DNA sequence: GTCTATACCGCGATAGAC
DNA sequence: GTCTATCGCGGTATAGAC
């Protein structure tokens, strides 16, 4: 009920609609975001929105696809900074995050309306799976280089690493505190250290 | 749009309303659950519902409080079966769960309407914190008995254990598969094993 | 304590002019 | 491509009889 107007006046209407939707999906989720809010934040008129996108689900689907592309690229860039595979996994876990805002994808999974629409669920499932495989390959690489023990399933542990971040968001939101988030990450790093090859 | 009528004819109207709300909150979350659905599943009339509870938030708050009481008791019962503290933590992780249905509490944290109402958020935060402390004490106990290493923060790791379960639900829902849930748990058990005192 | 009827509002989408 | 005006529907709650 406050800052509904944050125009991006440089871009096209269509572009502004997608960006506004991306923000609102993150802040409020899918069901709670109304076409009127999207329109207001994008600074476009009522009819204009329906000219570019037939339904709310269509704007949302485009916003989610853009999320997939951007976040996967961002993760690649982020991980490029760390040379060692095991270090990259630690780095992924301890990456600074706003615990209460949540993961753009994870946030969607509790909304039945998203899960029931394949065009909305698809990008969510695909991106989370992409993250998992990315971590999995880092773990396998770490095992190959002898940084990590080789007696565990990289696939399963990678899934757990992703889940830890998702769960941290859940606890941070419930507790309304970043500290709850950070505590989960601290424990995650502790658990991860147990996989390092013993000296 | 299907099985809306599952009366519990034995109990009082008020009782049936609370139970119906508990089920619907689990299946659909708070915002997506309508008073009409609650009324229909409980098998009570329109006015009757508003006689017992002034607003939807009031029924929901009562349902959440009951969830807290019941689930905390259930966890106590469940953990009583395992003698060793470290075994109890493993047991908590590997407890059979419907991955796609989610945790009754975790499911609520992605709904802004819940977080903005202290009477709804309170039981969620309290119960998740209660779970965390329960696990924390098991870990401390395990450290004291020498089952577990003593060089880690039981508080942080306990938070991570809870987060793993919450995150597993997120991934299972995104992937629409129990396998995604089970994989996270498998990785969690692997990580947990790294905390055991070395032979 | 339970019922039916009804009111209000905002979401999601459409119509049609410019 | 953008605008204003409008519509149908369902969520949430109230009124008032029995």
UniProtKB/TrEMBL annotation, chains A, B:
Could you tell me which residues form the DNA-binding region? 34-53
Q: Write out the entry's keywords from A to Z.
A: DNA-binding, Transcription, Transcription regulation
Gene3D superfamilies linked to this entry: Tetracycline Repressor, domain 2
One Pfam match, by short name?
TetR_N
Any keyword Transcription?
Answer: yes
SUPFAM superfamilies documented for this protein: Homeodomain-like (SSF46689), Tetracyclin repressor-like, C-terminal domain (SSF48498)
Domain of life per record: Bacteria
Q: HTH tetR-type domain: from which residue to which, for each copy?
A: 11-71
PROSITE patterns noted in UniProt: HTH_TETR_2
The record's section on PANTHER family has: HTH-TYPE TRANSCRIPTIONAL REGULATOR LMRA, TRANSCRIPTIONAL REGULATORY PROTEIN
Q: What name has this protein been given in UniProt?
A: TetR/AcrR family transcriptional regulator
Source organism per UniProt: Streptomyces tauricus
């Amino acid at each position: 009920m406050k800052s509904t107007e944050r125009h991006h006046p440089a871009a096209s209407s269509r572009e502004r609609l997608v960006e506004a939707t991306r923000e609102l999906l993150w802040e409020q989720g899918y069901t709670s975001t109304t076409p009127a809010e999207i329109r207001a934040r994008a600074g476009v008129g009522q009819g204009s929105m329906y000219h570019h996108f037939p339904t709310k689900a269509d704007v949302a689907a485009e916003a989610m696809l853009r999320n997939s592309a951007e976040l996967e690229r961002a993760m690649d860039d982020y991980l490029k900074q760390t040379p060692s595979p095991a270090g990259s996994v630690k780095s992924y876990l301890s990456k600074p995050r706003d615990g209460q805002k949540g993961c753009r994808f994870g946030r969607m999974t509790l909304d039945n309306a998203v899960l029931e629409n394949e065009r909305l669920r698809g990008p969510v499932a695909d991106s989370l799976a992409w993250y998992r495989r990315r971590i999995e390959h880092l773990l396998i690489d770490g095992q190959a280089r002898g940084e990590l023990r080789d007696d565990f399933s990289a696939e399963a542990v990678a899934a757990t690493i992703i889940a830890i971040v998702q769960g941290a968001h859940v606890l941070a939101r419930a507790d309304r505190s970043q500290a709850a988030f950070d505590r989960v990450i601290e424990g995650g790093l502790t658990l991860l250290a147990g996989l390092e090859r013993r000296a």
